[in-house]
Hints:
Chain A is of the alpha/beta class. Helix content of chain A is 34%, strand content 25%. Chain A has a domain at 1-86 and 208-252: P-loop containing nucleotide triphosphate hydrolases (Rossmann fold, 3-Layer(aba) Sandwich), CATH 3.40.50.300. Chain A has eight helices and ten strands. Chain A is globular, with a radius of gyration of 18 Å. Chain A starts with 6 loop residues before the first strand and ends in a 7-residue tail after the last helix. The model of chain B has no long low-confidence stretch (mean pLDDT 89). Classes of the chains: A alpha/beta, B mainly alpha.
Amino acid sequence: MSEPGRTAIDVHDVQLRLGHRQVLQGLHLKVAEGGRLGILGPAAGGKSVLLKLLVGLLQPDAGRVEIRGTDLSSGDEKVLMRVRRDIGMLFQNYALFDFMTVGENVAFPLARRGDVEADEIRDRVEARLRSVGLAGSAHKMPSELSGGMKKRVGIARATIARPALVLYDEPTAGLDPVTTQKMYDLLSADQEETGCTVLAVSSDVKALMGFASELALIHEGRIRYAGSSSEIADSSDALVRQFVSGSEDGPL
Amino acid sequence: MIGEGLITGIGRGTMAAWRELGGITVLTGQVLRALVPPTMDRPELLRNLYRMGNRSLPIIALTAFFVGGIMVVQAGVLVRQLNAAGLVGWGAGYAIFREVGPMLIALMFSGRVGSNNTAELATMTVTEQLDGLRALAIDPIRYLVVPRVLAMTICLICLVILGDIIALYGGALFAMLVLDLEYATLHYSLVDNIGWLDFIHGVVKAGVFGAAIAMSSCYFGVSVRGGAVCVGKAVNAAVVAAAISIVLLDFFLTYLLP
Ligand SMILES: Nc1ncnc2c1ncn2[C@@H]1O[C@H](COP(=O)(O)OP(=O)(O)OP(=O)(O)O)[C@@H](O)[C@H]1O
Ligand SMILES: [Mg+2]
């Protein structure tokens, strides 16, 4: 499915204006196939916008977005649809379909493909829900779930079809520390099994540093740090150091 | 100064109306393109047909029954004065089939089903469920909008046919109770004077109204921006737009159709 060595995500000098705000101002990002990148940064820095750009839900005003060798900037629906079939995405606000049960939500990416047997779908949904700690919740409606539970249903839905690229927007927001660790363990295990490329946005700096060896920090629509997670604390950039240490003194 | 404000206001309103009309036209184009060849979600279509029909049947049956009654009671004065009992069946049938049936039932349908549909789609839009579908390589127009447009159009046609029949029987009942007319008088007055054309005239109108309600209701649902407050505004705009289009379309169709 994935070819190591190839570039999975190539974002080149992207500019994006939304409303009256220049949200992304010359953003560069590269992730190799099978890689794992953690993205952090202060609120409203453009992290969620970046993820939406990567699935073609937003189009850049200038610059280029390439996913596994396909340029998304043309905005051609057919191209987008083809690329999206290999992507799993967890939205920051879950985006669960509220007219379906939890089980149907998780089954949706498989059911839509049309080539998976109903029995297999049921088994895989059950297994996926069990692995996110929600065994037996398949018949519930999303409105009956807590925020943390919705998040985990979102993770299950994003990963069930074993996509080549998975984008997680705040996979552990609203989860307690123990469940957070369990979720990151699950994301790691998933990636080892399928060899997919993973991009995870999180404001939980510590947990993210444990999960991803490569980190990128986005601030006001630009990458302020890109490099290994072990060296981020010693960055020459005072803003980066302040964000990672969480201290109140500094440029932020 | 007041005049100037008024003119700016009218100008802005007109611009907004044209923008929405443009948006509805674009969405209609997308829906039509998705229909040839018909690539929509069949379970979604059936689910919506069932839901929409079920939801609106009681209220439409009730309205139709009393509309038939009102027409006859109103006609009663003339009938007594002119001694024109032989015209009641024809008059009621003509008005119900061609005008009152399609128009009133469409307005009720818009208030009951159209508004609900806008609220549903708008909520899905602001909670990013449409983006969620797109991210899963599903086109929300094909998956959500097309089945709803079809379901609403088919539903309204069926409801108008059913409503016509109920209104006629309601009218007959009131004519017998209030005007002391014989059932046979009403019956022959209707079947001797009313043809298939009158019936089809109304059914065509129902189809057009159904599509218009569906398009405006879906458009305001999927084009909403912002949060929960905007959902209410979208519902409001959809119902108003549907009512205006029903009245305008009715005028043109009455003029154009035989
Ligand atoms: N649809 C939109 N229209 C206008 N502005 C938007 C839109 N989406 C996002 N923005 C703006 O873009 C900026 C970046 O938003 P984004 O959601 O990417 O932040 P973020 O980094 O994910 O923050 P958080 O950590 O709080 O989730 C914000 O200032 C936001 O107001
Ligand atoms: Mg965000």
